[in-house]
Design brief:
alpha/beta, eight-stranded mixed beta sheet, seven-stranded parallel beta sheet
Length: 521
Amino acid sequence: MRPDQSRWPRRTDHSDRIQHERAGRDAHERTNVTSDFARLGVPSSLVSVLNERGIQTPTPIQAATLPDSLAGRDVLGRGRTGSGKTFAFALPVVARLADPTNPTARKRPAPGRPRALILAPTRELAAQIAESFEGLTKASRLSLLTIFGGVNQNPQVRALTNGIDVLVATPGRLLDLRDQGHLRLDAVEVTVIDEADHMSDMGFLPGVKKILSATPARSQRLLFSATLDNAVNVLVKQFLHEPVIHEADSAQSPVSTMEHHVLTVTAAERTDVIADLAAAPGRTILFTRTKHGAKKLAKQLNGRGIPAVDLHGNLSQNARVRNLEAFDSGRVETLVATDIAARGIHVDDVALVVHADPPTEHKAYLHRSGRTARAGSSGTVVTIATPDQRSDVQGLMRAAKIKPTVTAASDQVLRELAPGERTLLTAAEVAERTPQAPAQPSPAKRGPGSGSGRGAGRGPNAGAGRRGRGSQTAPRASQKAPNSRQAPRAGRTASGVAPSGSTRGAAAFSASAGQSSRRSR
């Protein structure tokens, strides 16, 4: 639609004309940078938000699905975690709700009746999805709320009462609030199921079916999944109407920038090898099979002078937030996790993934490994295999269609896989960098530095003398590329403050429960 030119002044002086032309050129340059999104049909207001985030070129899954999802069709998108799926569904959801031709766009949503619903399998993923939506909803004057379990429901109920446009939720808390009468789904215009295969693996599909059955039958539905197993296929056939299927960067697709290695070690070498890899510069995620194993390994690393945090189901909500924020911000660069962290945790610039315990099946291997080599970056995946695990690991790699490089652990091999100087911190430095639980009241006053942080009471040289270890004050190599394994490990110096990194996941996670960004109508 052309603007009403009768409202323009008929005459302008020379300075006004120059200013007008400059503004036009600036606007053209801003939109031209992300013209690929505009050509896919993304509204200019949302293109500007992407441009502000430095997102200029659509990923394959975005380029494939956006034309159909923006047109209102049901879409089944298959793509690995880290392929850009969040914006692939966030853009069409916001575009639909804010479309001036949509009759509901001019109305405040009714209390407890959201207009769009995004389902995610874990609390962490729900928070990170909400963070991606935040800039888009703010630019479009839409309200946004994230709800999940493990926290007080009262703030969430109050926010729902005010009316919500976009609701990001985990299935359990959503059904709880619906069954209590705080929430209805009959006004939902578009529903998104993210990480549908993870929903299936975690036993959430019965709840997801109940939720979808409560939404309008002919509303738009978008389903994204890394794989399409039988359970997910049943969901597609039952609830999606003539879906358009797009596949890009699926979990089975090879990632040329990801290197896979198997390190054969003895049982006695295992912890030393894992610690050496964790001490190298760069973000590292270590996966264990059990919650106890994750807690134990993180404690061992901290005791050796390597700051590490754990992430698993036994942690309280506050502890999960603290630990994830410490890792996401770069204050701590080693995360020890169970498979919960493979289910949608998005942390940028993870250079190394180590399967400290090989997973039991290939889907878990692929999801774990997908924490690195994201968005075109390179990454290394290392599987630790003791003699009794070698045959299982061989079968795992065959099922995953991976041909790893198999080598025995040695000093040279470890430095090729994880280059850079190994530097250990003192117990006090480790305690300073790792988040601690709030202090409990005690009649005995503790002296400074006598807290119960990880590594407290251990000598500053604990762990020294192991394979290839540097001294406490050993200089570290530096490189120009910040995402390289050669880059200095954040916070590895005894003094100085760890650089502030991206906190998009953890910040959103800690702030989103029961809070909404309100529209200014």
